[in-house]
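Throughout our pipeline, every protein is held as a single compact record rather than as scattered files. The remainder of this section carries one protein's record, kept here as part of the documentation.

===
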Amino acid sequence: MKFRNNILNHAVKLALTTTTAGLFISGSALAADEQAEVTKVNKNVEKIAVVGTRSAPRSIGDSPVPIDIIGGEELGKSGNTDMLELLKGAIPSLNVHSMPISDAASLVRPANLRGLPSDSTLILLNGKRRHRASVIAFLGGGINDGAQGADISVIPSIALKQVEVLRDGAAAQYGSDAIAGVINFVLKDASEGGSFEVRQGQYYEGDGDTTQISGNIGLPFTDNGFANLSFQYKTADATSRSVQRFDAANLIEAGVPDIAPITQIWGAPEVDDDISIFGNVGLELTKNSEFYMFGNYSERDVRGGFYYRNPTTRPGVYGGTIRDVNGTNMRRPGDDNPAGQKLWDDATPTVLVASLDGYDQQINCPLVELQANGAPDQAAIDSLSAANCFAFNQTLPGGFTPNFGGNITDTSLTIGTKGEFTGGMLEGAYYDLSGTVGFNESRYFIYDTVNASLGPDSPRDFSPGKYSQLEKNFNFDLSKGFDFDLAYDVNIAGGLEWHEETFTVTSGDVASFTAGPLTDQGFGIGSNGFPGFKPSDAGEYTRRNYAAYVDIEAPFTEEFLMGLALRYEDYDTFGSTVNYKLMAQYHLTDDLNVRGSISSGFRAPTVGQANVSNVQTNLSSGVLVDSALLPPTNPIAVQLGGTELEPEESQSYTFGAVYTIGEVFLTIDYYNIQVDDRISQSEKIELSQADKDTLEAAGVPNVQSLAQVSFFTNDFDTTTQGIDFVANYATDLLGGSSTFSLAYNWNETEVTRSTDITGPFKVSRLENDLPNHRGTLSWSQQWESFSMFTRANYFGEYQGVHVDYDETAKTADAAITLDAEVTYFLNDSISFSVGAQNLLDQEAEKLDFTVAPNNNWGGKYYETSPYGINGGFYYVKATYTF
């Protein structure tokens, strides 16, 4: 019965020592004798995980699948205040890009576990499915193009007891999205005590000032319960790692006025009034049942940079109409060439000019040619008013750079009851009945731009509309042990789940989508850079599914455990799927065990991916163009290869070992994940004139200015394989207590099938953008009045890419960054910390101008840098614990 007793002992240890161990890890000041006792206890503590099993909680060493557990206190030892960055520092197989100038992906950044997109990792809160964000990453940096995952950034570290990361496919246990693994955020559940923390920091460059105020308090909820409440308030200034664009510098030299010193900003966005409130409530109803409730309210405003609009070439605003050298003919976008190709070859580029008297008078407006130095003819511009003509060079002579932003609101509530049946045929069985509602809304804003078709009457700021995601989930779980005369009881669990997902598109303000009076004179419709959603674009799209599952764990001997999970899931859109998972663990000795699993999985296309449409501005081969994202069933998408989306399907297996040598704890696991029919945004496909005419007839705005279209598609297969290695060691050192941790991940993705819709550069990004090798080495040291934490982060070679342009791509060098924090404990309640992230200010890989000599986008570093582009960040922190 050794195996069973170990599990029970671990559960008891967790209940008895969580508070003490947490105090030790965080380094609260203790008397010397108390410190020694805590150290003694801490060495015997084994971390316990609930994720990955439906039986009793397991220590991570006794789990048949690989699990990482990061304590809430450990997450707090970082200069970064973003949960994504905190997890990236603790989990080498998790990668997060900075995503500057990435449309909505700048508002909710995607994260990649084991090299797969963000929506291939299932997010849980207290073991319950977390709703996904309303943001779809239209410009997702290759690997995340079109991904729609959960918004992890709303979860404050101060609210967390621990984070459990299941690094194994788990669709048979938890349903869709668990192809890469599962991350379970476990909220604090103390009924007393708490902490209050103030943190201030900035980057070495002197920007990105960040202030964070957070707190947690545990309260009794009658004599038999708890109410644990947490909050976090944060503001962060924008950063800039930019140089002046070449075209802007040339225009300044040519004498064009009102051009900013830096016209296009690459850096972190500005974040204002970022507030998150989390609550976790539990109440014992009887000796065998309890009530629980938890949820959150979070909101933030984000504003970041966008692409510069050149005052001589931007189609639909400054350029797009060409006259011949005699000024007698005019060509608008889409017009045939009535006078023969030679005439247009001889044509002189001009500034786009409109007659305020109407289309018929446009030909009579003064001609504003571009001079040899590239600047518009200022005298001609000055003559426009007298002729009642208009060009944006009159009001915005230096061009303009829109700012893209949004207000992100996230809220959820879970209510349930769980316990043990005390009579009847289910006596001794454990049950869990719960309901969850989650909502995420992204209201978009675009500032400092124009609706060119409105001419001089255009406002500068717009609200193009909003996306919202509403999810409802109901679960009923049963679990009971049965005596089949094995080493101990066979645990059989089963349950039912019902899930509803609704994606809503809400139209924007009228000025953001209306076709103004200058439309027929070649001026673009809608807020430039992000045209608003028209009422005809608005809609509500809903999908429902239900599931039934069974989970069996059988200890054939005290040394040998096997588990089997089966799940049937039915969707009202594409039908049903059945998935399985088989896992096993064998203890070769008391100190060494081997483990493995094989499983199938799936990821259902999101309702948003199946129905959303959007017009966005992006760079294509270094040129700024407008492109339309269409639903895959749109006639144009179908004509170009689009089909109704089907679920992704996966096969994965892992094999590993766990070894304990004295105080050294080692795990190593190999994994292989094959995903067929992966869902992603297609390559941008060039539009023919016939395509444009069809789109225009369907009501798509600015069709003639559109250069490309894309759509979501099941278009390629991948195989991802890798190795995770983790080592931990605790000892007494330097007159105090030391803990060392080493974690390493090797990850490699190969695209095994693709078509022209995917494109060779997309394949390269999927295979090479993320580093194949990542590692961390951390050292935590505790003395009576001081503590220290330092971590070295290794990032292997990766593909440096800028503005999603293949000519910028190069192999970037490996790098090491260093994080450190030192804490002084004034007394039992008050501590002060100083620390730095990227302590030695390791610079990101600089853009290689020999690779891309015509860099005209203001960039300084490759945006795919796995450790960001902002450099070193230092901070101070004060903590009050009670």
